[in-house]
Specification:
Pfam families (chain B): CheW
CATH topology of chain B: OB fold (Dihydrolipoamide Acetyltransferase, E2P)
Protein name (chain B): Chemotaxis protein CheW
InterPro entries (chain B): CheW, CheW-like_dom_sf, CheW-lke_dom
Number of helices of chain A: 16
Strand order of the largest sheet of chain A: 2-1-5-4-3
Shape of chain A: rod-shaped
Main location (chain B): cytoplasm
Subcellular location (chain B): Cytoplasm
CATH class of the largest domain in chain A: Mainly Alpha
Radius of gyration of chain B: 16 Å
CATH class of chain B: Mainly Beta
Number of domains of chain B: 1
Strand order of the largest sheet of chain B: 8-1-2-11-10-9
Distance between the termini of chain B: 23 Å
Largest sheet of chain A: 5 strands, antiparallel
CATH architecture of chain B: Beta Barrel
Number of helices of chain B: 4
Structural class of chain B: alpha+beta
Order of helices and strands of chain B: HEEEEEHEEEEEEHH
Oligomer: heterodimer
Number of strands of chain A: 10
């Protein structure tokens, strides 16, 4: 978390400084290393060459010395003395020895300091003459040297030999004896001329040679003992084989070849070139301390270091300024993003709730649509039935219109026959009237007859009876006529009533016919309308089913919207965390500033004060059942997410 | 003779109102006239109106060459006038007016019914309605079943002046 708390500025400074440092260090290191390597290589080459040169010089010097010794051995007095000693013994050749000593003294006087002395020995190795560098001749005679290696080798080889460096018995200085065998004319070994050479000059010669800036040269014999070194105390005292840590050098010296070796001595890394002198296994070495010849490199390293520090400091400053400039807008953007994330979260919550309501509405709508659909089905079936019935009614009406017209025709016929009946009745009435009149007249006649009979008195009694009978008949016929007339009248009345009824009926029939035709039209219109209605209802049904589909789509879309809102909410949360991370990154004190701002901007926004969930929060909340950030759920507890509507397994885990 | 016969008849009538009567109807009421007073019954025929006669006198008719006056009994009796129909008859009666001779005249009635024989016991006197009302032209009331027939004395139906006037008319 501490690393996380680093602000962007700090990070940038850290990273920039690190990069610049790395680059500078890399470049400096590489250049230093390269220069070191090249210096080392150069030094190696230098050392080797110098050692080789010095070896050659030493060989040359020694060969020169050998030549000088040869010349001494060839000198007349020396040869004379040797011959006399060989012939007469030391005591017998006193003069010759003295002459020889004189000659040698002269040589030493010329040769200078580099000789310790020149001595002469007989064949048996006993000295018979010799001069020290100070002209003393007393020390040499009688000294036995037959065990000395140079004597043996000179005697055996019959040619000049350079002996090993030894500590002089006289001067206690390291010396090397060049022994040249003395021979007579016959080549018989007479003894040797020994030139004791002070090695010190060699050492001076060698050690005067500067290798590089701080290097020096040295020389060893084949045993590894130092025979020449700037430090004179080490000569003949130090054996390379015996000093721990100098094994590689000692091994190199033993090899007898020229080359370069690296080693470590007395806490200092050194390199040493070496080359064989070619005499007695002597080796010349030129050593250099690395630290010395790497001095410029060190200086360069210091410079590089200084440059690095300066560059890093400059970089840090530049990054500080740059990141300050850069983080300011990021801070602003972060605040804006934070606000935006909050608003997005809020909006997504609202969208979620709205889509929730939409989904509920859609389900209700779907239910009502289903009801509507079923109602429409019923309506459609009823309408179809209606249409069928209307068609049936139409056909019936059409059939009945035929019947009605037939009925009308029969009615007309009936009317006609009624009229005929009426006419006949009228005629009958006339006849009846006539009959009635006749009966009336007859009655009158009978009455008159009765009157006459009554007038006739007794004589008219029979006649009166007849008249009465006649009258009775007349009355009866009148009665009958009246009855008939009444009947006829009733008939006529009935006929006329029937006629009027018939007329009414006819009119009614006419109306019925008109009505039937109207009904037919109406029914056919109803049938057509029912068909259209059925069509319309089916269209409505189709529309309803389409509506249903649309509704389904709506519902699914709403669900998607809800999930999208959910997603959006999660994204907002994530964004909030990113913003927070960004705020942390740019070192924005998000909470404090935010809180102040909120308070300044608006009072009751409680969600702002809810701590922004940490980076682990989203994973937690995703695992949880709500999948809803605490801020939102706190603010609007009524909000129900689709997941909450559908029971999750998590809910059962509580049981 | 005629006067004698008439007197006889009158006597008879005085004695007994029993006899044959010609019944007719007027305003749905049955009336009777003594049969001997009836000369003839004729159907309605064309009546020639005569001016200057009382309103109940309809006019005169030519009965087989004889002009006789015709009066409407309805009008005479103060009943409302009705139109004549085929049932309307004219009863030709012989009146024995004050002027002596039997005068014939036609009485328009609604219809002629029959000739019936009415016994004495079925005849009652006309009731006295009061002194002012003259009922002398009513011979009696003949009970026939539940109904009552008014028997008219035709001679007294028309006053003498009337008869005279009628005679003049004729």
């Amino acid at each position: 978390m501490k690393g996380r708390k680093l602000s962007l500025t700090q990070k940038l400074m850290f990273i920039g400084g690190a990069i610049v440092l790395a680059v500078v260090v890399a470049i400096g290191g590489v250049s230093i290393w390269k220069s070191m390597q090249s210096l080392i290589g150069l030094s190696k080459t230098n050392s080797q060459q110098q050692s080789e040169q010095m070896a050659a010089m030493v060989r040359m010097v020694m060969e020169e010395e050998v030549g000088k010794a040869k010349a001494i051995a060839a000198m007349g007095p020396v040869v004379q003395a040797a011959r006399q000693v060989a012939a007469q013994g030391a005591s017998g050749a006193h003069d010759a020895i003295a002459q020889a000593n004189e000659a040698l003294r002269a040589i030493i006087g010329v040769a200078g300091e580099q000789y310790e002395g020149i001595f002469l020995s007989d064949a048996s190795g006993t000295l018979f003459g010799g001069v020290l560098h100070d002209g003393n001749t007393k020390l040499y005679p009688g000294v036995q040297i037959k065990d000395r290696a140079y004597f043996k080798r000179a005697k055996e080889a019959g040619r000049p030999v350079i002996g090993q460096v030894i500590v002089s018995k006289i001067s206690k200085e390291p010396v090397a004896v060049i022994s040249v065998p003395l021979k007579n004319e016959k080549g018989q070994f007479l003894g040797i001329v020994g030139v004791t050479l002070k090695v010190g000059f060699l050492a001076e010669t060698v050690s005067q040679t500067k290798v590089g800036t701080a290097g020096y040269a040295y020389m060893t014999d084949k045993e590894g003992t130092i025979i020449a070194h700037p430090d004179k105390k080490l000569i003949l005292k130090l054996n390379l084989h015996k000093v721990p840590g100098l094994e590689p050098l000692a091994a190199a010296m033993d090899s007898g070849k020229s080359g370069v070796v690296e080693y470590r001595f007395r806490g200092a890394d050194k390199i040493s070139g070496y080359a064989p002198v070619g005499i007695n296994g002597w080796m010349v070495g030129a050593t250099q301390t690395k630290s010395e010849f790497l001095g410029p490199v060190r200086a360069m390293a210091w410079q590089v270091g200084a440059v690095s520090v300066v560059a890093v400091l400059l970089t840090l400053l530049a990054f500080f300024v740059f990141s300050r400039n850069m983080t300011r807008p990021i801070m602003v953007a972060t605040e804006g993003l934070s606000d935006g994330a909050d608003q997005v979260a809020e909006a997504s919550t609202q969208v979620s709730s709205a889509s929730q309501q939409l989904a509920e509405g859609a389900s209700e709508q779907a239910a009502s649509l289903e009801e509507t659909s079923s109602a429409l089905e019923e309506m459609a079936s009823m309408t179809r039935q209606n249409a069928d019935n209307a068609q049936q009614a139409d056909s019936i009406v059409k059939a009945s219109s035929g019947d009605i017209s037939e009925a009308q025709r029969s009615m007309q016929a009936l009317t006609q026959s009624m009229q005929e009946i009426s006419q006949a009745s009228t005629e009958t009435q006339k006849i009846i009237k006539t009959i009635d009149e006749i009966a009336f007249q007859t009655n009158l006649l009978a009455l008159n007859a009765a009157v006459e009979a009554a007038r006739a008195g007794e004589a008219g009694t029979g006649f009166a009876v007849v008249a009465d009978e006649v009258r009775n008949l007349a009355m009866r016929s009148a009665e009958a006529a009246r009855n008939t007339a009444e009947l006829i009248e009733a008939t006529v009345k009935k006929v006329s009533g029937g006629e009027s009824i018939l007329k009414d009926a006819n009119q009614a029939f006419q109306k019925v016919a008109e009505g039937a035709s109207k009904i037919g039209e109406l029914v056919s219109e109803i049938a057509a309308a029912s068909g259209e209605q059925a069509e319309g209802i089916s269209q409505v049904n189709r529309a309803v089913s389409e509506m249903d589909q649309v509704l389904q789509r709506n519902a699914s879309t709403t669900e998607e919207t809800a999930s999208a809102a959910e997603e959006l909410n999660a994204q907002a949360q994530q964004m909030r965390q990113y913003v927070r991370a960004l705020a942390d990154l740019v070192g924005l004190k998000a909470h404090g500033r935010k809180g102040e701002k909120r308070k300044a901007a608006s009072g009751p926004s409680t969600e702002r004060d809810v701590p922004v969930p940490s980076l682990k929060a989203p994973s937690k909340s995703k695992k949880g059942n709500g999948a809803r950030p605490p801020a939102v759920s706190q603010k609007e507890p009524a909000q129900v997410s689709p997941e909450e509507l559908i029971p999750f397994d998590d809910d059962f885990s509580e049981f | 003779m005629t006067a004698q016969n008439a007197a006889v008849v009158m006597d008879k009538e005085d004695r007994s109102r029993e006899g044959k009567y010609l019944t007719f109807s007027l305003c749905n009421e049955e009336y009777g006239i003594g049969i001997l007073k009836v000369k003839e019954i004729i159907g309605m025929m064309a009546i020639t109106p005569v001016p200057q006669t009382p309103h109940f006198v309809k006019g005169v008719v030519n009965l087989r060459g004889k002009v006789i006056p015709v009066i409407d009994l309805r009008l005479k009796f103060g009943m409302e006038e009705s139109e004549y129909n085929e049932r309307t008859c004219i009863i030709v009666v012989e009146t024995s007016g004050a002027s002596s001779s039997y005068a014939m005249m036609g009485l328009v009635v609604d219809s002629v019914s029959e000739v019936v024989n009415i016994k004495e016991e079925d005849i009652e006197d006309s009731p006295a309605f009061g002194t002012r009302l003259s009922t002398e032209y009513i011979l009696g009331m003949a009970k026939s079943g539940d109904s009552v027939k008014i028997l008219l004395d035709i001679d007294k139906v028309l006053t003498a002046q009337e008869i005279q006037a009628l005679e003049k008319t004729a």
